[in-house]
Amino acid sequence: MSFAGTHTALVTPFRGGDFDPDAFRSLIEDQIAGGVTGIVPVGTTGESPTLDHDEHSEVIRTAIEVAAGRCLVVAGTGSNATSEAIALTRDAERLGADAALLVAPYYNKPSQEGLYRHFRAISESVKIPLVLYSIPGRCGIEIGVETVVRLARDCPNIRTIKEAGGSVERVSQLRAALDADFEILSGDDSLTVPFLSVGAVGVISVASNLFPEEVSRMVRLWLEGEIAGAQALHRRYYPIFKDLFIEPNPVPTKFALAQRGKMSAEVRLPLCEMSEANCARVCKTLEALK
Fold it and tell me: What is the rounded distance in angstroms from the CA atom of residue 42 to the CA atom of residue 59?
């Protein structure tokens, strides 16, 4: 299975404190109509830390039902407790997810040996493909290049990493150290084209919640060798790529979707609504893109 292309890190819509399945279904249909390769429910953008286990399963189940084989479903199942990550990943496999996304354990700050054992234990518990997720800005640690190499060597179902460390050099290091069939995905919309230029093959995107067709086209053009076209789309959408992170993700994205009437802007504490100044900034950027 290849993950080359665009995968949307879906927001989880809420209304009155509860999961809003109707808005979620509509969002997924928009993604499929926009030509995305896959969708990623209950990742960071899906506010997974605030969902209980029943909600976590419900969101994944809904995503699989709506996708109905029309795109890949990569379920977020990471945790800072290995036993919980195993349970969540097994549940995603049981529900029918195509793959699982595993964020590095946060808060614990394990050693690289601990990281290796954590991911290997999850790998040995399921058969579906696993996508590593290195995001040191949130987790306090990165999955070291040598650790990724060890996991790729020892775990047949680990052949992909979402790289969200903000470093083109890091992608170059990974590409040089790993076999050609190990895939690297950008975890930052603003760095997707730079990452593609040094060996990444796609993105797990936040911006594609709003612009699935445009982000998909940007990645597709690059992969097809239409470099100038991809660069032009990067330049056009770069302002919104940045503005969607002026406050903690997914607060700006949900605000923007609410402005389009797609869902409530509601997030769960400890996240909260954006400042008035930042709301105005996002609206101005969106208006310019019309």
Answer: 7
- Active-site hit among 106, 107, 109, 162: 162
Q: Is 262 a catalytic residue?
A: no
260, with CB counted inside 10 A (0-12, 13-18, 19+), is exposed
Would you call 237 a catalytic residue per the annotation?
no
Distance CA 195, CA 166 (A): 9
Query: Is this prediction's pTM over 0.85?
Result: yes
Identify the active-site residue in 106, 116, 127, 133: 133
Q: For residue range 47-101, what is the model confidence (pLDDT) as tens digits?
A: 999 999 999 999 999 999 999 999 999 999 999 999 999 999 999 999 999 999 9
Whether 186 maps to a domain, the answer reads yes
Cα distance from N-terminal residue to C-terminal residue, the chain: 36
Instruction: Indicate whether 244 belongs to any domain.
Output: no
Does residue 107 form part of some domain? yes
